[in-house]
Write a structure and sequence with these properties.
heterodimer; A: about 400 residues; mainly alpha; 2 domains; 16 helices; globular; B: about 40 residues
């Protein structure tokens, strides 16, 4: 409801002046006059920021080293000081304060990069991200900030990604198999989220679970592609997968009992689904799906292994179970993510089954019709579920 | 208490940054300068 709508109703004589005031007061409506000013101000602010950036960039070499470093450190400290003042002392603009703390934590990475650039420090790239992560690791717990926690997960994931790609690293993995490590890292975050549910920092559980599940689904999905994967490169540290896998299982064993909205049977089913996916990835990692091409092909071929079809089926079943778990947990996120990944899984299967013109034609017809019907069915089901969840939540709130 | 820990974290962050700067500045000040000999190609 807008301020202007209430004015129109009043002008039509449907409500009295007193009722108008009551409606405006109850819903906290404000006059919409400042939008133009706000847009102009934002454009102006962007121009000013861009202008300052360009001016600094144009004179970068003339600025003394000390000046650059001092400015970087002052910006970082200033952001944290401003954030503290807004959140803890003034207490009115808590979200803005949280955003300033977030800028301060990002500024630490910017300062690391700045010093690296000024002194031409040639070192391992993952180390810069590790130092950043170490520098901000205490922030979420201290400030009780979800944004800082997301940043912490992102920083860890980025460091892990760089470390996996760094030649000579203790977790080095040259092959495409590295996507399995990222998917497994997602499951580590998911398990950690389940464990966090019963701690003093339970507000971080949801963030870790969502981030972890999305990471897992995104990096599992490429396994459903026919021509993507292979075991061509063996330059890798094989031990990292079983170690991470053990961590996943341990975290899930400890944390699964905290899913109290699920029945005991469904807790076990969801645990079996998650460990089953980890088990499937282990089979891929150790090359159990590997087949060799006729004529003595040197390398195992994903395309001929039917592994991609198994992955497509596994992802489909997993997403169905996820939707069911989401309904019991009353989590729109679990349901929506499940529906989205079922849709992309079907699309992947659709392209995987391309063949001759006749076969492709038949596949186009069958899968196109199936996709439309299934899409309509899923969307109706999803909307119904969302409506039911909202109704239940509203009833509980009353 | 919370503020003290935040200050400690920020001090550690700054210490790492300034420590790196100090090490690099020292290397620049006391390091041996190596000049590369160059000559025209033609």
């Amino acid at each position: 409801m807008k301020f202007g709508d209430v004015g129109k109703i009043y002008e039509a004589g449907i409500i009295t002046d007193e009722q108008r005031e009551k409606i405006i007061g109850h819903f906290g409506l404000k006059e919409e006059g400042g939008k133009f000013l706000a847009i102009i101000s934002i454009v102006g602010a962007v121009l000013v920021a861009a202008g300052i950036t360009l001016l600094i960039a144009a004179h970068w070499n003339e600025i003394p080293r000390g000046g650059k470093i001092a400015a970087g450190i002052l910006l970082m400290l200033g952001a944290h000081a401003g954030g503290w003042w807004l959140r803890e002392i003034r207490g009115t603009y808590r979200k803005t304060g949280e955003a300033l703390h977030l800028i301060g934590s990002c500024q630490f990475l910017a300062n690391i990069a700045l010093i690296g650039q000024i002194y031409n420090i040639v070192t391992r790239a993952p180390d810069a991200f590790l130092i950043w992560w170490l520098g901000i690791v205490a922030m979420p717990w201290l400030l009780r900030s979800r944004a800082q926690f997301v940043l912490l997960l992102v920083a860890f994931s980025v460091w892990f990604g760089f470390e996996v790609n760094e030649r000579g690293s203790w977790v080095y993995c040259e092959s495409e198999r590295q996507i399995l490590l990222y998917a497994l890292l997602g499951l580590v975050f998911l398990g950690a989220g389940y464990c966090l549910r019963v701690t003093n920092f339970f507000e971080f559980a949801e963030v870790a679970e969502k981030f972890g599940l999305v990471l897992f689904l995104i990096f599992f999905f490429p396994l459903t592609w026919k021509g993507f994967f292979g075991w061509e490169n063996n330059e890798m540290q094989e031990w990292i997968f079983p170690v991470l896998g053990t961590v996943v299982i341990l975290l899930l064993v400890i944390g699964i009992k905290n899913l109290r909205a699920l029945t005991k049977q469904w807790r076990w089913t969801w645990f079996a689904a998650l460990s089953g996916m980890a088990g499937f990835m282990a089979c891929v990692w150790f090359g159990l799906w590997q087949v060799y091409q006729a004529g003595g092909g040197q390398y195992g071929c994903w395309e001929d292994s039917w592994g991609y079809l198994a992955a497509t089926l596994a992802l489909f079943v997993f997403c169905l179970l996820q939707i069911q778990a989401g309904i019991q947990e009353r989590s729109p996120f679990l349901v929506n993510a499940g529906v989205v990944f079922i849709a992309v899984d079907i699309i992947a299967a659709y392209f995987d089954l391309f063949g001759s013109m006749a076969r492709t034609g038949v596949m186009f017809l069958i899968s196109g019709i199936f996709l439309i019907v299934f899409g309509i069915y899923l969307e109706k089901k999803r909307r119904g579920l969302m409506r039911r969840m909202k109704t239940t939540m509203a009833k509980e709130a009353q | 208490m919370k503020l003290k820990i935040l200050i400690l974290i920020l001090v550690l962050q700054c210490a790492w940054l300034l420590g790196t700067v100090a090490v690099q500045e020292r290397a620049l000040a006391s390091g041996k300068v190596i000049r590369l000999e160059t000559c025209p190609l033609i």
